[in-house]
Automatic annotation (TrEMBL):
One of its GO terms (biological process) is signal transduction. PANTHER family: RHO-GAP DOMAIN-CONTAINING PROTEIN, SPERMATHECAL PHYSIOLOGY VARIANT. The lineage of its organism: Eukaryota, Metazoa, Spiralia, Lophotrochozoa, Platyhelminthes. It comes from the Eukaryota. It comes from Fasciola gigantica. This is Putative rho gtpase activating protein. Residues 139-280 form the Rho-GAP domain. SUPFAM superfamilies: GTPase activation domain, GAP, PH domain-like.
Length: 280
């Protein structure tokens, strides 16, 4: 049950629109007409991807809109040129007959390491899917919360789906959170949630309870800031040390209730869920 007073009384509500921060950095780009690699400085600004000769942005070489596009990793590791290896991803139209620019039907881009590629993919997917309830992994709760839905209890969809799956199929499973599924299957599920795939994503005939529990842990682990933000740690620790067993917990509760709305709402839900798991 969602406490509507919590949602109404706090500054971030589901109908508000969160902005997407600008993202920039060096990438190699495969030419459209001549298939050679060139190093360009890319800037993701709003729903447009622009590229320049350098970070001073003095000379704009090209730009295109991300509306109606999709971003995909091409493989784990590929040759960017004959001298070095890189990590490729592609931005292409959803319509296979469309072109992004006059010379590019798609943009094949190359990052220098897997973390850089993951960051670019997440930044682009945030533009494409955040407003549809996707782009969850690696996104701050404050950004995702405005696009949560009442049918998911105003929680990130992946949190609601995984906890409900465990409630329905896994409460008697041994080592729910101790064991895990394969990394490949976990990343496939994370990608489906990031792309706001149609429901249902989780299937008890295909996905194990351990895999689904691992997906929940992966989501929480990938949050840029924990459910209890770093700035609250010292206050919670110092207050907790002063409270002996059986004493009034009101000071701790006061601190927790001062958490940002998305964090407090999710923490409350997770504590209830973990209590249910531990009670069996």
């Amino acid at each position: 049950m969602v406490d509507d007073s919590i949602l109404r009384s706090r500054s971030c509500r589901p109908h508000e629109v969160a902005g997407v921060e600008e993202y920039s950095g060096w990438l190699k780009k495969l030419g459209g007409k001549f298939k050679t690699w060139r190093k360009r400085f890319f800037v993701l600004r709003g729903s447009k991807l622009l590229y320049y000769t350098g970070p001073d942005e003095m000379r704009l070489l090209g730009e295109f809109s991300l509306e109606g596009t999709q971003a995909e990793m091409l493989s784990a590791e590929n040759e960017c040129n004959s001298d070095s290896k890189g990590y490729l991803f592609v931005v292409k139209p959803e319509d296979p007959t469309a072109f992004l620019t006059q010379t590019h039907q798609q943009f094949i881009l190359c990052a220098s390491n897997p973390e850089e590629r993951k960051s670019w993919m997440r930044a682009i997917r945030k533009v494409l899917y955040l407003r549809h309830g996707g782009a969850l992994f690696g996104t701050h709760l404050s950004e995702a919360f405005p696009f949560t839905k009442p049918e998911h209890g105003y929680h990130p969809r992946v949190v609601y789906d995984t906890t409900q799956f465990i409630r329905d199929y896994g409460m008697e499973t041994e080592g729910i959170f101790r064991k895990c599924g394969t990394q490949h299957a976990l990343l496939d599920l994370a990608e489906a949630y990031d792309e706001a795939a149609e429901e249902p994503i989780l299937d008890p005939g295909q996905h194990s309870v351990h895999l689904v529990a691992g997906l929940l842990k992966y989501y929480l682990r990938e949050l840029p800031e924990p459910v209890i933000p770093f700035r609250f740690y010292d206050r919670l620790k110092s207050t907790g040390f002063r409270i002996a067993d059986g004493q009034d917990l009101a000071p701790l509760i006061d601190i927790l209730e001062s958490l940002p709305a998305p964090n407090y709402h999710l923490l409350q839900y997770l504590c209830q869920f973990l209590f249910e798991v531990s009670a069996l």
